[in-house]
Amino acid sequence: MVSHSDPTSVDHSSRPAATATRHALALPEMVHEILGWIMRDHASCWTVRKDGATEAPDDDLEWNDWEDPPRSYGRHGVLVQCAQVNRLWFSEAVPFLWADLADYPSDRSLPEFFVAVPDLARRQLYASVVEQADLCPVEVGESAEAVDQSLRNVSFPRIESLRLRLPGCDGPSHLPRVCCPRLVTLEIDPRFEHMPDTYCVLPQEWDEVLDQIPRIFPHLETVQIIDRARVHPGALE
Predict the structure, then answer these.
(1) Inter-residue contact 70 to 47 (CB < 8 Å)
(2) How far apart, in whole angstroms, are the C-alpha atoms of residue 221 and residue 237?
(3) What are residue 174's DSSP bridge partners?
């Protein structure tokens, strides 16, 4: 009987295939193609169990604890894990993760992605590949200062169009100081509710927002308002 601890008993027949696989996964073109297919997967969702393990996608997943629903992640979560493989995979994953920030769930505003990034060099690395994003005003105060601090000395050279979402609020509105030197189009999406018709953005907020826009984005060529809004005639001229 051959001992399992005997090195001569190891089957080497799979080594060439394993070597070829490792070589393929070290090619930038191959890694880019793999990540591209992951990015196209809009449907799959993996559930993270309470023990930290993950489960494969399951359309029949049942759970009853509505106060503590299971966490899950989709293609962006998969890409984050791929980015941790090595430097090559990280460099290839960054554009997929950061190019379209408007594609993430929960309507996250552009600064929210950068507040937790620890250093300026890393923030600029990510900002240099951003092409699409949404922006929301924040309340004047410490939160506004923290947001502006996270974006200070950070430039977004690829953003040419930006959507400004106005949820409507009672207090003063502060637009984050975002540096987009090539921005030419701004879409303003004010919150409007039906049944009954409700204009959530008050005239005072419109005045504050429209006053800040030309200072932050001096090279705008087009400003569009999506949905219904109460704006003074000529306010966008």
Answers:
(1) yes
(2) 11
(3) 138
CA distance 159 to 184: 9
- Phi-psi sector, 227: left (phi>0), alpha (psi -120 to 50), beta: left
Can you give the residue ranges of every domain in the chain?
A: 26-44+55-97, 100-236
Per 3-state DSSP, what percentage of the chain is helix, strand, and coil (rounded to 5)?
35, 15, 45
- Pick the closest to residue 108 from 80, 132, 136 (CA basis): 136
Check residue 99 and report its DSSP letter: S
The structure tokens listed for 8 are 């001569």
Question: Do residues 75 and 38 lie in contact, with contact meaning Cβ atoms separated by under 8 Å?
Answer: yes
- Give the CA distances from residue 163 to residues 132, 171, 183, 226, 231, in Å, rounded to whole numbers and listed in that order: 9, 21, 11, 10, 18
Run of H or E including 215:
helix 203-216
Reply yes or no: is the peptide bond before residue 181 cis, omega within 30 of 0.
no
The strands making up 71-73's β-sheet, listed across from edge to edge, are: 54-55, 46-48, 71-73
Summarize pLDDT for 10-64 with one digit per residue, the tens: 454 556 656 877 887 878 888 888 888 888 877 766 566 555 555 555 444 444 4
pLDDT digits (tens, 9 = 90+) for 119-177: 999 999 999 999 999 998 887 666 788 888 889 999 999 999 999 988 876 666 889 99
Torsion, Cα 57 58 59 61, to 10 degrees, reads -130
Per-residue confidence (pLDDT) for residue 199, from 0 to 100: 66
d(CA 165, CA 168): 9
